[in-house]
Amino acid sequence: MSEQPTEELVVSIDINDDMTYISYASLKGKGVTTLASKQDAEKYGIPTLMYMNEDTKKWSFGANAYARSQSKGGRLYDRILSEVLEKEEPEDEAKKRLSTFLAHSLELAAIAVDKEYMNPSFAALAICLKEVDARIIKLMEACITPLKNVVRDIRFITRNESFYYYTLSQPPEIWRSSVMLVDYSREGCHLSHLRLERGMD
């Protein structure tokens, strides 16, 4: 019996302190899939929250983390990203929490693609952030070591870059004039605008 060919995919994790969006696409160009909430199939993404059960020392994530913190007490962790990126010297525990949350996000993607493809493999991972610079990359690099066991090619991009790449991958009639994206989150209202400039050398 012949071995099934590997289906290579690219996965992205778009994370902020409010929500995290997990998407994947086959390199064969079958379109992009974004994971929906388990609680509501019409809503996408998971809340960027973590909760640890002090008895079992096991983490819960997203909406489950919030629900368990309400029923069992204990500490609910939010600002998972900011606790690393907004401090000059982030605490090791904060970096471990971000690393654990990213690993969980990648695991959710792996579960989803296993159901959809015969022999899936992650060729690359894009982690999407509000902004990216040398300092942020250095901090994030310290948090992605466990992910490299699953995918070796890991890159960091801004939301504006992600918007441009996605828009330009669509049919020309969509982007040949002007496209604007309005994104509302706890971080505020973020606008991305793509306009094609004609007649420029």
Instruction: Note the gap between the termini.
Output: 56 Å
CATH fold category name of the domain at 7-48 and 78-171:
Nucleotidyltransferase, domain 5
Poorly predicted residue ranges: none
- The residue-averaged pLDDT reads 88
Number of helices: 6
Summarize the helices and strands and which ones pair or pack.
Layout lengths: L6 E9 L3 E8 L5 E3 L11 E2 L2 E4 L4 E4 H11 L3 E2 L4 H4 L6 H25 L3 E10 L4 H8 L12 E5 H10 L3 H4 L2 E8 L2 E8 L6
Parallel strand pairs: 1-8, 8-9
Antiparallel strand pairs: 1-2, 2-3, 2-4, 5-6, 5-7, 10-11
Note down, in words, how this protein is organized.
The chain has 201 residues and is of the alpha+beta class. It has a domain at 7-48 and 78-171: Nucleotidyltransferase, domain 5. It has 6 helices and 11 strands. The strands form 3 sheets. Strands 1, 2, 3, 4, 8 and 9 form a 6-stranded mixed β-sheet that branches. The protein has a 3-stranded antiparallel β-sheet with strand order 6-5-7. Strands 10-11 form a two-stranded antiparallel sheet. The model has no long low-confidence stretch (mean pLDDT 88).
Quick synopsis:
31% of the residues lie in helices and 31% in strands. With 201 residues, the protein is α+β, with helices and mostly antiparallel strands.
Pick out its properties.
201 residues, alpha+beta, Nucleotidyltransferase, domain 5, six-stranded mixed beta sheet, three-stranded antiparallel beta sheet, 11 strands, 31% helix, globular
